[in-house]
Design goal:
The protein is mainly alpha-helical. The chain is about 55% helix and about 10% strand. A hairpin with a 2-residue loop joins strand 6 (about 120-125) and strand 7.
């Protein structure tokens, strides 16, 4: 049996983190109330956040908790077992301050086999396979049997020392519960979230963005087919970035390989998404051109007089046709914005994802407007120093799409 580990919090916070910030992040990440989180962070005792982990998984928990702002350590599950005998209380956070704290338990007798799993691997009354304190297990079951005998229809008392049914530190978002509307200020929060993802591994993000730009430029130079291939591949590449953000959300690293991860996550529907979006754009452009030419004074356009040409371009008919075209473009962009993430991460069909993307954007017009204005400002600022700032802005904006997706569909 391989050695297992536990992740322990002992009352220290990472430097540079505010307690309020940590409470907010911990509560949201692990679906724990603020009151319970405050009690946990305010304890002066050592708190076992999670036990029974292999070393790799324990490191994953440690990394995730340190990013939130806690100082934790990893110990062997074999440690802290001395003559006084220590037992682990329930790993679910409850109101009692003793929650998750190793406490002393006197043992009056030696029990050779575990009363719960029948394992002979006992040490000072504690099963090393399932973690049950034998004496307490037997006592609780004895009480439960008495209560059940006392009245029909009563449920058997739950064993408080059995393994928890819920995993405290696993994401508890469950299934998608959105799209939901969020306040306008979340438009800024999405950009802040994008910055968080970027700064975890900026080198990999910059390399991934540069690689995609160079590939798109190279393929785009192929006559006729180049532009088509780039447009069809864009949803797949975007999905790869979303998959990379998902990995970071779960405590892993973003790598250059995530650039192509979309080719292994529902690629057929992602390709279909590119076909639908590209086809709709072509039809929209054709419709705009027909409308524009219908509104133009062709005699004025063919004139050599610049004033007549400018007058034709600035005519009310021409401006109306342009506005109608852009108004039709907005719903198409709304239907596409979250679609790559929904297809790749939620295994949706292309059309279903576009409908849900449109619905999510429609419910969040204000935060998306704030987001769009701020994103435009960042693009302008990033372009000023010879475009070098875009090496930061483009990854940030890409990751912010995932932050918005999580906020709206898994709020």
């Amino acid at each position: 049996m391989s050695e297992t580990c536990k992740v322990i919090y002992f009352g220290e916070l990472q430097p540079g983190f505010e307690a309020e910030e940590i409470i907010e992040a911990f509560s949201k990440r692990f679906k724990v109330s603020r009151e319970k989180t405050e009690k946990l962070l305010g304890t002066s005792k050592e708190v076992v956040l999670k036990g029974g982990l292999d070393s790799a998984r324990a490191m994953k928990y440690k990394k995730l908790l340190e990013r939130i702002g806690l100082v934790v350590r990893i110990d062997s599950d074999e440690s802290d077992l001395d003559a006084s005998t220590l037992s682990l209380e329930s790993t679910e956070i409850i109101d009692d301050e003793k929650t998750q704290v190793m406490v002393s338990t006197p043992m009056s007798t030696e029990i050779e086999k575990c009363p719960k799993c029948d394992s002979p691997n006992m040490q000072q009354g504690i099963c090393r396979d399932c973690g049950v304190v034998a004496e307490k297990y037997l006592a609780s079951h004895s009480r439960g049997a008495g209560e059940t005998a006392g009245g029909e229809g009563k449920a058997t008392t739950k064993n408080p020392y059995s393994a928890p049914e819920a995993d405290l530190l696993e994401p508890q978002e469950g299934e998608m519960n959105g799209p939901t509307g969020v306040p306008a200020g979340h438009g800024w929060a999405w950009l802040a979230g994008g910055w968080w993802y970027f700064k975890q591994n900026p080198v990999a993000w910059v390399l991934a963005i540069l690689t995609w730009i160079l590939l798109a430029m190279g393929v785009g130079m192929i006559p006729l087919l180049g532009g088509l291939v780039v447009n069809l591949a864009t949803p797949i590449i975007t999905a790869g970035f979303m998959i990379g953000c998902q990995a970071q959300h779960e405590g892993e690293d973003f790598t250059l390989g995530h650039l192509f991860a979309g080719f292994s996550n529902n690629p057929g529907q992602l390709l279909l998404l590119g076909v639908i979006y590209f086809g709709a754009m072509i039809l929209l452009v054709i419709g705009m051109m027909i409308g524009l030419f219908g509104m133009l004074d062709m005699e004025a356009m063919q004139s050599q007089n610049p004033e007549m040409v400018m007058g034709a371009v600035m005519s009310p008919g021409f401006i109306i046709a342009m506005l109608v075209g852009f108004l039709l473009l907005i719903p198409l962009m709304m239907a596409y914005f979250f679609a790559p993430a929904l297809v790749a991460l939620d295994d949706m069909k292309a059309l279903e994802a576009m409908k849900l993307s449109f619905s999510g954007c429609l419910k969040n017009l204000l935060p998306l407007t704030v987001y769009g204005l701020l994103a435009t400002l960042l693009m302008i600022l990033g372009s000023i120093p010879l475009g070098l700032g875009l090496l930061i802005v483009l990854p940030l904006l890409t990751a912010s799409m995932y932050a918005a997706y999580r906020d709206i569909y898994y709020s």
